[in-house]
TrEMBL record:
Organism whose genome encodes this protein: Hymenobacter psychrophilus
InterPro entries: AAA+_ATPase, AAA_lid_NorR, CheY-like_superfamily, Homeodomain-like_sf, P-loop_NTPase, Sig_transdc_resp-reg_receiver, Sigma_54_int, Sigma_54_int_dom_CS
Protein's UniProt name: DNA-binding transcriptional response regulator, NtrC family, contains REC, AAA-type ATPase, and a Fis-type DNA-binding domains
Keywords linked to the UniProt accession: ATP-binding, DNA-binding, Nucleotide-binding, Phosphoprotein, Transcription, Transcription regulation
Any GO BP: regulation of DNA-templated transcription
UniProt domain Response regulatory: residue ranges: 7-121
Amino acid sequence: MSSTAISIFIVEDNAWYAELLEYKLTQNPDYTVRRFATAQSCLDNLSEPPDIITLDYTLPDGRGDEVLRRLKERLPEVAVIVISAQEDIRTAVGLLQQGAYEYLVKDEETADRLWHTVGNIVQQLALRRENTQLRKQIGQKYDARRAIRGKSPAMGQLFTLIDKAARTNITVSIVGETGTGKELVAKAIHYGSDRREAAFVAVNVAAIPRELLESELFGHEKGAFTGAVARRIGRFEEAHRGTLFLDEVAELDLSLQAKLLRVLQEREVCRVGGTGSIAFDARLMVATHRDLAREVQEGRFREDLYYRLLGLPIELPPLRDRGNDVLLLAEGFLHEFCQQNSLAACSLSEEAEQKLLRYSFPGNVRELKALVELAAVLAENGTIAAADLPLRSPHPVAATALTGAPPADESLRAQTTAIVQHYLDRYEGNILHVAAKLQIGKSTIYRMIQHQEVQVR
Ligand SMILES: Nc1ncnc2c1ncn2[C@@H]1O[C@H](COP(=O)(O)OP(=O)(O)OP(=O)(O)O)[C@@H](O)[C@H]1O
């Protein structure tokens, strides 16, 4: 069956009326119609399930509500349009509550209304099919061994943990420096798990203003606060049956930590301004670049929440500890970039390889990717020379270049802060621009702003 083909069963004991409906529906060559004069003959032919069933309410071998119940038991997804000789509101409401898609009364316009209703269902089916197809493609994209490159022993252990995490619903806590691939790992686990058909919802806690975060996570009712003009469901509800990924979880303030703990214990959320609780079924994964145990010791993170979130801990090594994976990744990114941009294939010279292997990559894989993509643009004759790799990340050398010789007692952190502040001033607080310039994650900058280490002024 082609992706546009729609199969429709007409269940109608009046042969003339069934013919009329069939005639109307087959005006669309994509609709394949089969007719059944009894409920039983339709029920006996569900091995190749139709997309839509039109069901006469009064059949010789069963009443509409009973037949609908049996159909829905066998095919919960099928759209059933009940067609009845009488208009009876109570019956109609009952059927709709039972899961009927529509209730139509037999009159001279029924065939036209049926045509219209079927058209609506077909549009929804097309969206659903497209959605399934897209999810499948995304699933393939994030297949762990395809998406995550690395052959070092540390990466071997990582793949084993990803497989284990994907087989269960255990909470996963991922720790690693910025750009080490924490979100990529979370996606690989989600798309490798039974939850792959439902959504992967990522929330960067550091990127959302504190006062909006509660409503972002748990939703709000209309009028809950100024600006809440309509009800909005939160990310927990959005991730129902799927996965909720809380990035930079250590940045949650203590009052939200308490609320999150309660939500995880009860498995229910309460929308801001709402009275009732809503059960959710989302798997939780969290990530942070901080040492959460230390955050607990220093009183910034609740111990009880820490133990709730720890689950299966996965630690991502910094790129500088992954040996030759640097070259493997560089070659992969180069290949992809050249293909996507219709550039002739290019490769790394010996000196370029050595330069990459010696570099510390404070921005990790994200920085490497940006670096080799730029090099592919700068390279001549398909070979990347060492000079095509401008190492521009904030590190001691860059700090010296920016401010003159750094004071001997200035820490790397203080120098990093100075560089980020310098670029924020220079680019008038354009965070995306500064992140791109320095090849660091924008969440790193949001975090620094949140901790008042830098300012947008
Ligand atoms: N092992 C890997 N193989 C291929 N691509 C990778 C790998 N690790 C990371 N990447 C790529 O590097 C980039 C950064 O990864 P990601 O966003 O997952 O990092 P992160 O640790 O979540 O960063 P941040 O802490 O800034 O949120 C992405 O483009 C990702 O696809």
